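Rotation project, supervised by the postdoc (A.L.). Task for the rotation student: set up a whole-complex structure prediction and record inputs and outputs verbatim in this book. Inputs entered:
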Amino acid sequence: MRDVLIIGGGIAGVSLADHLARAGVDVVLLERGELNREASGTNAGSMHLQIAIHQFIGGMDAPGEAERLQEETRLAAEAAELWKELDDELGLDFHVTGGLMVAETEEQLQLLRDKQPLEAAAGLETHVLEAAEVRSFAPYLSERVIGATYCPAEGHVNPLIAVERIARRSGAEIVTHAEVTAIEPGFRVVTTAGVFDAQRVVNAAGAWAPAFQTLPMKAMGLHVNVTEPRARLLEPMIQHIGRRLTLKQAYNGTFIIGGGWPSREAPGRWATTWESAAGNAAVAVDVVPALRDVRLLRTWSGVIAWTDDVSPILGESEVPGLYTIVVGSSGYTLSPLFARMLAEQIVSGTPLPLEYSPERRTPA
Amino acid sequence: MEAYDLLIVGGGPAGLAAAAEGAAAGLAVGLVDERVTLGGQIYKQPGFEVRDHRALGAEHLRGRALIEAASSARMMTRTLALAIEGPAVVLATEGEPARTVIARRLLLAAGAHDRPVAFPGWTLPGVLTAGGAQTLVKTQRVLPGKRLLFAGSGPLALAFPAQLHGYGATIAAVLEAGPPPRAGDVARMAAAARGNASLLRDAVRYRAQLLRARIPLRYRRIVVRAEGEGRVESVTHAAVDADWRVIAGTEETVAVDTLCLGYGFVPSVELPRLAGCAFGFDEARGGPVVEVDEWMRTSVDGVLAAGDGTGVEGSHVAVDEGRLAALGAALDLGAIASADDAPIRARLTRKRAFRAALERMHRVGPGIFELATADTIVCRCESVTRAAIEAAGTSDIHVMKAFTRAGMGLCQGRNCQRQVAALIGTTEYATPRLPARPVALGVIAREPDHDLGRFQ
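Outputs recorded:
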């Protein structure tokens, strides 16, 4: 009988296993395939900290929205600090590059101006750059860009190596190719690799978490593109306040381009579509014209867990001993932090925000 | 929207024969090829103007005849096929934005390429594939070097050096990894050669040409390393057993400036893999081979495959497979009520028997995948060594790719994927990815023509 059994070998599950194992908890992590094969290994590794378009639900004037956005920003800044510590200890190719969020219309620029004070209040340094300022700061941006916010703390890690290194450091027992087929009371967890008994079970199955619990979330596939390597052009990451774009030049010179373009569900995986490749390329060359002659090498699909109210699902469910950690949007940035919070809850009883409860009601 | 009854990818023997047959059956046929000229690798057309085609020999004329027979199809050279999504196929012609066309039937006939083999020194300038050397000679009339060593296996292993010698190259030696032909093999080939007289005649002619020129032709020897400062200066070769594994103490070193390698061919599989076609595995036909039925239909509705891409069997087989594919498409689409396919099938049976007899002598041994040493770069785009691949400690090709970046470079894995797979004990390739060829973002950029709604 183990203390804790974690389902899911992505960044959330592995980070949690790391915190628990190092606190002396007897923990086992089960992964249905290999570690890091889904969202954690297929996202672009960006540490976006600024308030982004997908975080707005009802507009900044809606009741409670400003507070929610401010709290999310505070957590993002704290999460980035934690990644920095992880990088110091494990070497995760974390580069603090700064990040730009660009606007092409007056309406988009106004949104940038409006969000900046919320970020300042949350302790995240951002600057609004307008017209000539943005041109001199980032000469590679097209004439279409009329303004931007710049956040010096943003950066990116290499998502291909982080989970593996955290897992290795944790010393936790990790069983791969163990797909959970049933969670019986007790708990008795039945898998394709045998039965495991545990006092507590944590559902860290990301997009597949609803297989084990009713949760206010859905999953969707996200298209990502990578180009051939080129000489250094971009230092900061770039994202867009009004169109689907995240863009950065990785440490090896390749450009990684995403931003919320959908992929389609195919048997056993999410498959990229030509429409998303072409649409994503269109936004990228609109914003950085020099990308026009850079060759696309490969596309792939990540998957994103999307909670109905954009807040994470974190804590104990109505079944005592059954916990959930599903971070949802910006999950890669935030997961190590939420894993630490959940570990503190499990080990020391530190309370978690009620609005993250798996039992919360969410607006339809 | 641009639409075709039959869209063919690949302007080699299979694609050209299919285009001719399809057009004759009344289909609206389009054919795309990424190269500047038609003919594929085997009938690659010269980059210079030819005043007298007869001067270039019988093989050249055979290629010309295939191209001319297909001339009523719409030919699109310098055109990449980038993506396949149901009946939609994304094409990009050089200098134009990418476009989506509709193919009621899509024939994938992208052929094969030289098997890449990783050994110490294989990335040195002066090491090139037989196909690369042949392209230099055919299209530019340029010899790849002054003093050449030719190493390889298979029926064409003798054809290339004979041809190069004919053009004035000094060939230090020709190394065949397979065994010398024995009486039994010759008898078997002769038995299978009914209707294949020209193939057998060619093989004999090439061998005789080399003997006449006193070029040493050595069997059961393989290249183990190439060395030199900045380019090839010497090549070491050794004897191998039936599995192509090196026999200790048999190494010899020869001074050359160029090494041409022709260890057989591997099917170009990126398009059928992207389309989602079912594959089998047959080492004798190049490794991964698309599964097709008697009309060359793959497991994916509307997608056909023919030629070396469905298993390397040479241009004669490819031509007939192309014809069958086009006839099958015409029957499926109702353009013709019946097809006179019996003679084609009879010919295919004979040619396949002959090829099978040849393949028995030239089957690739597993030793070919074991030549890299710890510090040999296996994935040359991303500079990944054999040691790095082994240190990753996984037999899962996807995990390997993520850990080492092997296969993530400009060649999109074409050069290394089989070698990497062999090193970790699998024949599985990583998930196929769009686009099928590297393509500039400006060429493909296009806003969707409908609203995707809010991100979320």
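Student's summary: The first strand of chain A starts at residue 2 and ends at 7.
Supervisor addendum: Chain A has two domains: 2-41+160-216+309-356, 96-154+218-306.
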